[in-house]
Amino acid sequence: MIYLIDDSRLKDYNAEYVLSGKYRDILCVVQNVEEFERHVSDMSQAECIMIHNTFAKSYTFKERVAEISDYGDKIPFVCFSGSDSEIADFSLRNLNFIRTINKGIFYGRLQLFLDSFIQTHKVNLLLLAYGKNYMYTFVHKWVLNIMQVTNGMNGKISEIDLAKITGTTDFKKIVDASAPSIGQSYDDLLNNLMDNPITIDAFRNNLIKIENSFNQYGKNIYTWK
């Protein structure tokens, strides 16, 4: 069961869907202190716990839930507030803990998160932190890093160029994230680049094409040429 602990007016956030009954099998909505006390003993078995920072005008409840979840180490844990930034405080080193996220953004993405859980039976906090197109956020960053590495390179890719490109894990992350449509494994692609070097411009254009695909479709649909 996923627990949503919030005493806000859900109508203010267009979030009446949480009470519609559609999610009753996976979502327990806690809206007051009495309900919290009634359910708190069951939260140690939760799939995920999400709480308004100042539930019942206090940080006490957030602290109690933080102990139960061990800040995401035991149970995925999400904290949200109307005063929080629209950019989630979320570390890729801990995919089970969103420290802060704006309440409006949270409710704008919650239905997507719940639908994903129903389909996959897995908690994916990336959907809450970054939205449906969350992979584009990462691919964009990785491509930018590669563009900086290749800045100043010209002509066909040399062994020295490849060594610099593969000096970080960014290119491998892009290739792995682009499977299976990219059509080659990371090792096969490197071997092909060694045996049949392409120009730096062609290399960059392939990365831009892949990045645009993630932006438009949420995944890569192109092969590497």
Notes on the structure:
- This protein has 9 helices and 6 strands, in the order ββαβαβββααααααα.
- The protein has a 6-stranded mixed β-sheet, sandwiched between helices.
- The protein has helices spanning 33-39, 60-69, 103-120, 125-130, 134-150, 159-165, 170-178, 186-195, 200-217, and strands spanning 2-5, 27-30, 48-52, 77-80, 89-90, 97-100.
- The protein starts with a strand and ends in an 8-residue tail after the last helix.
- The longest helix has 18 residues, at 103-120.
- With 225 residues, the protein is α/β, with parallel strands linked by helices.
Sequence of strands across the biggest β-sheet: 2-1-3-4-6-5
What low-confidence regions span 5 or more consecutive residues with pLDDT below 50?
A: none
Strand content: 5-15%
Using only CA atoms, what is the Rg? 22 Å
Mean pLDDT: 94
Percent in helix: 40-55%
Q: Which structural class do you get from the secondary structure elements?
A: alpha/beta
What is the overall number of helices? 9
The number of strands is 6
List key phrases describing it:
about 220 residues; alpha/beta; six-stranded mixed beta sheet; about 45% helix; elongated
Brief overview:
It contains nine helices and six strands, in the order ββαβαβββααααααα. It has 225 residues and is α/β, with parallel strands linked by helices.
Outline the fold blueprint.
Elements (H helix, E strand, L loop, with lengths): L1 E4 L21 E4 L2 H7 L8 E5 L7 H10 L7 E4 L8 E2 L6 E4 L2 H18 L4 H6 L3 H17 L8 H7 L4 H9 L7 H10 L4 H18 L8
Parallel strand pairs: 1-2, 1-3, 3-4, 4-6
Antiparallel strand pairs: 5-6
